[in-house]
Amino acid sequence: xxxxxxxxxxxxxxxxxLGFEMPKGWxxxxxxxxxxxxxxQDVFLVQSDFDGDGQQDTARLLAKEIGExxxxxxxxxxxxxxxxxxxxxxxxxxxxxxxxxxxxGEYKTMCGKKHRKCGKGEKPVLALKNNAxxxxxxxxxxxxxxxxxxxxxxxxVAVSN
Length: 161
Prior knowledge:
Layout: H1 8-14, E1 26-28, E2 45-48, E3 57-64, E4 70-76, E5 81-88, E6 97-102, E7 105-108, E8 125-128, E9 132-137, E10 142-148, E11 153-160
Antiparallel strand pairs: 1-3, 2-3, 3-4, 4-5, 6-9, 7-8, 9-10, 10-11
């Protein structure tokens, strides 16, 4: 638990002081009541070392400034780069999206759970050596997002539908 912090308040009030620049066209997402969040858990921000470089990275759910849409962004401290990982058409304030910290370990994918056949190159089990996160819609779909060192990219893998 000491490896990550969930600090939505700090993000909203002093995000730029921490070095995060809001991506152009995006803003902090409105707080929504997420029934899948544990008491006191913030499902809009997760900070942890996702890429194994010893530096804390930051994942945030943001809302489009104009129109509809929620985006999942990860800021890599070492690369000094912000990645747009996923974008939905959900309305700000009217969604049940969230992100949650995942420690290293083994996680079954959709095909590993026998929900469907494994596609070419798809693994039934992810063996993660670094911290990762779950990107989910409450009581619906979920995926795991992790850093792939060989591809130098964040990878998103479905784990439930």
